[in-house]
């Protein structure tokens, strides 16, 4: 049977094979497509933009890079011997995802340039409708829409009054001239720090508006040599060992320490940052300004190879007076001073509770995801939601967003999805929907554990929900791996082991 998907290539699939809709062609969506193709399922990937890449397609600001080592920030099945550096620039990561999607033949399965408007559970299937009015039914939906996706604009008076160009870091306007200009950067998260590092020596003046100081771990640019890349190319075991050893070091060190505020992790990192502040920042006044007053790793740590140099550049002015308003010519702080600038950059983060919304997701009995998540988004085992059958999320609510490699996380979550799909196929489950009771139990245990993490030690951060509780996976990597590789089927509606035996013996 062939199934015409308007505007894209024809997708071939059997009507007897369950069909999957994947929403988003970023890192997780590409992964899901590759794995579904390997398993012989029919699938369509819906992508609002005109190319793959997700966050790496959207974020093109100067200085963009990934501070996670590239050899972990790769699919385990598509290791890349050619990474240029230990931590690679954003453009190279974007190219990696485009190349992987290409080499696995995903493009004909992707419906580009048409955002999904709604998906509705009716008659035991999902009816998915796009903004262009395209409609199709699927047996399964996988939302792979990312977390840091919806730009958050600051609630600052007069933001629209600015005369010059003004944009969010995730919507960089490359038509705007920066060289020799005066720039304001609002925000000192990972993004603001990377932008500052990249622009400090290019612009006439950079006023960096810091609301809260950040712990910044100093790092060094470590390019791989031609010889090393050649070794990785010719020795697959070496590449795989590197991936393994980096993952293990990350999971056993940082990821373990972060979930236990008493582990000493924060103190160790803080000592490293303090030493950098003492030895690299000459001016005590500037040092005081940029020294945080909360535990390291409470907010998402910033790792930078040029922060300490950049903040001392003669062009850079770290402004700690709170912002009162934006004026047509610049930023007015509460002391009445107007910091005159030509360009205003908002490195102010993302709405982390939106996930796939504003897309409408309607589950059993007409319940919407907005209603289900009226308080705050949550998901059973960070993957699925009561009342929303055959619907999964990769890197969705309660995922380990700040602890493990996001790619490793998505790979493990996808294993969970495939195990649950198999349980439906062999009759152990009627549909895949966690019970409300199981979700409640998981949520209670998660919240209790979240309170012991470093994220809960007293700072403002995007890791916290509206009640101030960290929402990321608060358990160990081992537990995450175990939960993902051996799902607790008893936590799903209508589970029956007998059914499986019937199917197997029949
Ligand atoms: P962010 O961490 O949420 O930082 C937003 C910044 O804007 C903070 O400094 C915040 O101050 C400031 N801010 C927000 N509203 C403000 C207001 N009204 N007035 C003044 N300041 C305001 O966002 P991000 O830097 O874009 O980073 C988000 C996440 O993206 C990171 O944590 C990381 O997970 C990911 N990321 C990763 C990399 C990488 O290399 N892997 C690079 C970039 C981003 P407060 O601190 O006071 O809230």
Give a quick precis of the structure.
This protein is of the alpha/beta class and 506 residues long. Helices cover 31% and strands 17% of the residues. The chain has helices spanning 27-39, 55-58, 90-103, 190-199, 226-234, 236-252, 254-258, 265-280, 284-289, 307-310, 369-372, 406-425, 436-450, 477-485, 497-505, and strands at 2-3, 11-12, 19-23, 42-47, 110-112, 116-122, 125-130, 135-138, 140-143, 166-168, 182-186, 205-209, 216-218, 302-304, 316-319, 323-327, 330-333, 338-340, 343-346, 360-362, 391-393.
Largest sheet: 5 strands, parallel
Helix proportion: 25-40%
**CATH class bucket of the largest domain:** Alpha Beta
Number of domains: 2
CATH level 4 superfamily of the largest domain: FAD/NAD(P)-binding domain
Number of strands: 21
Strand percent estimate: 15-25%
Low-pLDDT segments:
1-15
Rg, Cα atoms, Å: 24 Å
Class computed from helices, strands and strand pairing: alpha/beta
Q: What is the spatial order of strands in the main beta sheet?
A: 5-4-3-9-21
Quote the average pLDDT. Answer: 94
């Amino acid at each position: 049977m062939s199934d015409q998907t308007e505007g894209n290539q024809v997708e071939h699939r059997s009507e007897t094979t369950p069909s999957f809709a994947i929403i988003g062609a970023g890192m997780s969506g590409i992964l899901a497509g590759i794995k579904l193709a390997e398993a012989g399922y029919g699938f369509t990937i819906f992508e609002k933009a005109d190319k793959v890449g997700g966050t790496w397609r959207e974020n093109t600001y100067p200085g963009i890079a990934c501070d996670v080592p590239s050899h972990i920030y790769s699919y385990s099945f598509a290791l890349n011997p050619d990474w240029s550096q230990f931590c690679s620039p954003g453009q190279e990561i974007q190219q990696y995802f485009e190349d992987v999607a290409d080499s696995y033949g995903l493009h004909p399965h992707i419906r580009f340039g048409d955002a999904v408007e709604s998906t509705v559970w009716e008659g035991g299937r999902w009816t998915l409708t796009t903004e262009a009015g395209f409609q199709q039914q699927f047996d399964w939906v996988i939302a792979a829409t990312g977390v840091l996706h919806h730009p958050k604009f600051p609630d600052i008076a007069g933001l629209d009054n600015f005369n010059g160009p003004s944009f969010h870091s995730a919507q960089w306007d490359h038509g705007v001239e920066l060289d020799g200009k005066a720039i304001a950067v609002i925000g000192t998260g990972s993004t603001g720090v990377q932008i500052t590092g990249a622009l400090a020596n290019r612009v006439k003046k950079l006023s960096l508006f810091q609301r809260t100081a950040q712990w910044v771990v100093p790092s060094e640019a470590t390019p791989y040599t031609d010889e090393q890349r050649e070794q990785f190319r010719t020795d697959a075991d070496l590449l795989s060992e590197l991936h393994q050893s980096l993952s293990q070091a990350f999971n056993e060190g940082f990821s373990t320490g972060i979930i236990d505020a008493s582990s000493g992790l924060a103190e160790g990192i803080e000592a490293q940052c303090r030493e950098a502040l003492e030895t690299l920042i000459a001016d005590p006044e500037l040092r005081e300004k940029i020294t945080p007053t909360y535990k390291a790793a409470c907010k998402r740590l910033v790792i930078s190879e040029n922060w300490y140099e950049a903040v001392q550049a003669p062009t850079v002015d770290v402004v700690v007076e709170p912002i009162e308003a934006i004026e047509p010519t610049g930023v007015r702080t509460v002391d009445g001073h107007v910091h005159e600038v030509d360009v205003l950059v908002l490195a102010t983060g993302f709405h982390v509770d939106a996930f796939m919304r504003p897309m409408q997701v309607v589950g059993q009995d007409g319940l919407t995801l907005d209603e289900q998540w009226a308080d705050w988004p949550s998901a059973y085992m960070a993957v699925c939601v009561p009342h929303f059958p055959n619907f999964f999320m990769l890197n969705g609510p309660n995922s380990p967003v700040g602890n493990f490699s996001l790619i490793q996380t998505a790979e493990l979550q996808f294993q969970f999805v495939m195990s649950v799909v198999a349980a439906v196929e062999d009759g152990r489950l009627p549909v895949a929907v966690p019970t409300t009771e199981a979700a409640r139990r998981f949520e209670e245990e998660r919240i209790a554990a979240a309170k012991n993490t470093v994220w809960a030690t007293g700072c403002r951060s995007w890791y916290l929900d509206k009640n101030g509780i960290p929402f990321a996976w608060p358990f160990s990597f081992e537990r995450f791996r175990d939960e993902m590789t051996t799902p607790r089927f008893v936590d799903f509606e209508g589970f029956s082991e007998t059914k499986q035996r019937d199917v197997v013996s029949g």
